[in-house]
Structure formats: C-alpha cells, structure tokens
Amino acid sequence: MDPLFYLKPDNKKLNTFFQSFSMTERDRLSLNLLNVDTIWIDESEKSWRVDYLCPVPVSTELLELLTNGIKKEFHLTHLIWEKKDAKKKTQQEK
Predict the structure, then answer these.
(1) Which residue among 49, 60, 62, 76 is least enclosed by CB atoms within 10 Å?
(2) SS3 43
(3) What's the pTM value of the predicted model, to 2 decimals?
(4) How confident is the model at residue 91 (pLDDT cuts 50, 70, 90)?
C-alpha cells in the first residue's frame, strides 16, 4: 500500500455511520470507545489503512463487521486496521 493522502475523520459522524451497521449491544459499546485517528487512502489499489485508538481491546468480529461495511460502501478491495499507542501519540503532540 502506497497511500496518496489521508483523512482526519470527524469521529462523531463516523460513529453514526458505523452505528448503522447491524451489531450486538456489546459491539456498540466497544464502538463508542473506538477513536479513528487517521485514514490512509491508496486510490489506485482501492485500499485504506485505518489507524485507531481504543482503551479496550476491540474484538476481531467488530473489526470484521466494520471492514465489510466500509468496503461495501466505498468499493474497496482491501482495508487494514492498525491500533496506535495512545502514549506515543500524546508525546508526539507535545
């Protein structure tokens, strides 16, 4: 993947989009803690890498559900989730 650009999403709007997917109540609660930091986009390969922060482990099932919904909506062939370290992000922002 060779991203050409990135997006810093509005997490409130993104969460509203994610909430439109069919999921368990447990996944909905986890989703409320998920904070997407950056979406890296490679248009030529129709692929995204989603960098996120979350204070609790995110289930594989939830990530698969979100991946399938995003891929369908945006006609992607590939999507990768990458959890970022909140401590490193905080230090870099200083």
Answers:
(1) 60
(2) coil
(3) 0.84
(4) very low
